[in-house]
Design brief:
This protein is of the alpha/beta class. Strand 5 and strand 6 form a beta hairpin. The protein has a single domain, classed as Rossmann fold. A 6-stranded mixed sheet has the order 3-2-4-1-5-6. The protein is globular and about 55 Å long.
């Protein structure tokens, strides 16, 4: 079975999103996160956003319903799906796949960009030289590493039995790598798009593909009207800068 539609959802706002944005604005070196990346929970705003996603799913229940639902194993993504499904009234379960986890930052984890410049100036210089796409922090991943696991995930989804849209809850960098693979972008096209666009928390990015086509069509990017419809805050916490937990 070849899947013809993907709904890519970024998790709702997390507590680490807030702390990272505050630390970056204050030019602190370290983000005072209280959990390892896999255990970072949603903020109260993130829960509201997940509820708004659930209301959007309920509206679609009379027509298009996801035939399969997948989530990153990280807590903030699983919470987003769980809350949304509870609100939607859909009697559905979801699958967890470690290939959908956020990009691992290795020794740069919990550091702001200022912190990297101060504590690892050689790494900051190496990143500038290699570029964001290929730079791999020690103990972490490059975007190309994320692309390898998403390629594998897409092959398995295509080989499955899903016949309708597939909903995937993950992270901003993962959503952007899906676009890179599904749209056949180059490194330059991906980075140019990432520089000018933000994946909103709890937003929906929709891709479609006709039978037999290799590449997909981007129908909607970072759709957030379902948040505004119920008065849920719209939050950006923009960009994979190599240094912020997502």
């Amino acid at each position: 079975m070849t899947v013809s539609e993907l709904w890519l959802v970024r998790h709702g706002e997390s507590t680490a999103n807030i702390l990272a944005s505050e630390a970056q604005a204050a030019r602190l070196e370290v983000i005072a996160v209280e959990h390892r990346d896999a255990d970072v929970p949603l903020s109260p705003t993130g829960v509201q956003q997940a509820e708004a996603l659930g209301a959007w799913l309920a509206e679609n229940a009379g027509g298009t319903v996801p035939s399969a639902i997948w989530s990153s194993p990280y807590l903030r993504a699983q919470q987003t799906v769980s809350v949304a499904l509870g609100v939607s009234g859909l009697n559905r379960s979801f699958l967890v796949d470690e290939r959908l986890r956020d990009r691992e930052l290795g020794i740069l984890d919990t550091l702001t960009s200022h912190g990297v410049d101060q504590r690892y100036p050689e790494e900051a210089a190496r990143r500038r030289w290699l570029g964001k796409f290929y730079y791999r922090p020690p103990g972490g991943e490059a975007w190309t590493d994320v692309a390898l696991r998403i390629r594998s995930f897409l092959r398995d989804v295509d080989a499955g039995e899903a016949s309708g849209p597939v909903l995937i809850a993950a992270h901003d960098a993962v959503v952007l790598v899906f676009l890179y693979l599904c749209l056949g972008w180059s490194e330059q096209e991906l980075l140019a798009f990432a520089a000018d666009n933000t994946v909103l928390n709890a937003s929906i990015t929709r891709l479609t593909r006709r039978p037999g086509d290799r590449f997909w069509t981007l129908e909607v990017f970072s759709h957030g009207e379902h948040l505004e419809a119920v008065g849920a805050p719209v939050t950006e916490h923009a960009g994979d800068t190599d240094v912020r937990p997502r």
